[in-house]
Amino acid sequence: MVAPALDTRFALAQSELPTAWFNVAPHLATPLDPPLHPATREPVGPDDLAPLFAQELIGQEMSADPWIDIPGEVLDVLRLWRPTPLVRARRLEAALGTPARIYFKDESVSPAGSHKPNSAVPQAFYNAREGIARLATETGAGQWGTALAFACAQYDLECAVYMVRRSFEQKPYRKVIMETWGGSVVPSPIDDPSHPGSLGAAISDAVRDAVGRDDTHYALGSVLNHVLLHQTIIGLEAQQQLANAGETRPDVVIAPCGGGSNLGGVALPFLPDPSVRLLAAEPASCPTLTKGTYSYDFGDTAGLTPLMNMYTLGHDFVPPGIHAGGLRYHGDSPIISKLVHEGRMEAVAHKQRAVFEANVLFARVEGKIPAPEAGHGIASVIQEAADATAKNEERVILFNYCGHGLLDLAAYQEYLAGDLVDEP
Ligand SMILES: Cc1ncc(COP(=O)(O)O)c(C=O)c1O
């Protein structure tokens, strides 16, 4: 039974905030392939990762426990904005004239404006607890860098951010936000000012920084198992909220996919139910899941990281400078890649102009101005709703509204002026 009222927001009490993360590892049909050492090509062990990551995070990366408790000190910070609302997009449904019921999890209400703090906070916490003084990281759109700068401020850590040069130039206010929280930001690649940059190259810069200093660890904003683990708080909250909205389950869960963390976060808790379809939305100009190959590759451009079995476009692939900077990554999460490879998860690609068309429709009917990344999910939602309309189905669609676009207005300006192209 669907909630009869015309309610659009399904909140959770703060006392209902999940206190453990959902680990998907025990639910996979077969174990994940191990990451391989970049030099020896042997499976990496915890000691290989110790120069880069906190012990607790390495443990989570390899854990087979079904649930992992969220430390109280992390919950204290997450409570600044969590639980996030689940919103029924009734006005979008009406605009589309669809019998589908469309819900979105609003991750844009976090301090940094996206889902990224869900992992930044625990990563900063575990590093601070182990005596690390400084974290180095990459950022694409700037969302992860801002999230980590915010998280480091909570636990008195220094934060060094290498920002993909193209985004650094497109989004100057991201830098101001990071500096306001005490972080420092430089454009990447640091050794080639004429290069537009890529996430792979920025990861190389950040890893070099971290291995060069004893007081510094590296933090990755996506891809790795522990990052997806931290993001499962999104899907766990959504399960409770959908029940409050009178739904038994979503028919399909949709999210944009760059490295796979917001998608994993909203979708993985639904994986054990085979009747729930899971769908990744990615850019047509960086089509990792739809056109990449499933093979071992480096996570970065310079080949400093372990090799992971994932969908990849090749670690030297430099994607066109689309505005969805967070989706310009050559690889993908090994968990997401495996699910796509095995057919448990679907993937579709969208061109940039179609994404902005979807975003502008969403903004006009629902009010919120989405991040360019989020628009990939919205474009897929619109396709799903059209399919439900054609088949006259009351399909329940859940998508992750992974971030707002209030710092992406230059992109909107370009679109509204008719100047936006699919492949810059
Ligand atoms: C708003 C937003 N959505 C999505 C992404 C893609 O990352 P992921 O696939 O890890 O969620 C990013 C990455 O920067 C982002 O900033």
From TrEMBL:
Pfam families named among the record's database cross-references: PALP
Protein name listed in UniProt: Tryptophan synthase beta chain
Lyase found in the keyword field: yes
Cofactor: pyridoxal 5'-phosphate
Role: The beta subunit is responsible for the synthesis of L-tryptophan from indole and L-serine.
UniProt modified residues of type N6-(pyridoxal phosphate)lysine: 116
Family: Belongs to the TrpB family.
Catalytic activity: (1S,2R)-1-C-(indol-3-yl)glycerol 3-phosphate + L-serine = D-glyceraldehyde 3-phosphate + L-tryptophan + H2O
Pathway terms, separated by semicolons: Amino-acid biosynthesis; L-tryptophan biosynthesis; L-tryptophan from chorismate: step 5/5
The EC number(s) this enzyme carries: 4.2.1.20
Keyword line: Amino-acid biosynthesis, Aromatic amino acid biosynthesis, Lyase, Pyridoxal phosphate, Tryptophan biosynthesis
Ranges for domain Tryptophan synthase beta chain-like PALP: 79-400
Keyword Lyase: yes
Gene field: trpB
Complexes and interactors: Tetramer of two alpha and two beta chains.
